[in-house]
Amino acid sequence: MSDDMLAIIADRIRRTAQNAGDALPDAVVVPALREAIVGNLLPPGMRLTEVALAGQLKVSRTPVREAFAQLEREGLVTVVPRVGVFVREVTERDVEETYTVRGALESLAVSLATERRSALGTARLDDVLTEMRAATEASSAVEYTAALDRFYAIVFDLADNATLRATHHSLLGPVRRLRRIAMAQPGRMEASYRQSVRIRDAIANGDPAGPALMREQLAAAARAAMDVLKGGV
Fold first, then answer.
1. 29 vs 68, which has greater pLDDT?
2. DSSP string for residues in 44-84
């Protein structure tokens, strides 16, 4: 990749990191690179070099090295010893495995959230659903997926199980990447929003159908992501 292209990417990464100035603060190198991968600014198969990125982001090599290690743990990059670091390809097996695990974790979270529902919890879900509706009406996949992240975070807060939350958190890198991919399918955002409203209603009303609704949501998302990967969009 040319230096000019790397400079453009680095500038966009800095702007992604809440409009950071010329130098990117060390603390935001990981989230900035993560977002660049999730948003396909750094596409699958791209080789990332520690020296070049550190130079363009105007940080030392240490936070870049640490970022690579964290992103490898999250399944977003592949580190090949003595060769380099590459943005990880997304495969059909990734979709199948990730959504299988999500189905187990997130349906359990809905079940626990339903048992522990409260007026405050319902109000929090309503607030984020308002954001999701606005993003849907604006056809903004980036804003919608960010709001959907918050919807799921609230569900896990309401579930109030630290082990469950920590286990789910370990999947967030791949989950957010697949979520962006799925939203590329026409109509997926609208369908996701409608199903999220149904999940909210089930939690608020103590409806035991909530976990099944979550599994339906994830099955549809998995199909959408698979279709996009296969070029079906």
1. 68
2. TT-EE-HHHHHHHHTS-HHHHHHHHHHHHHTTSEEEETTTE
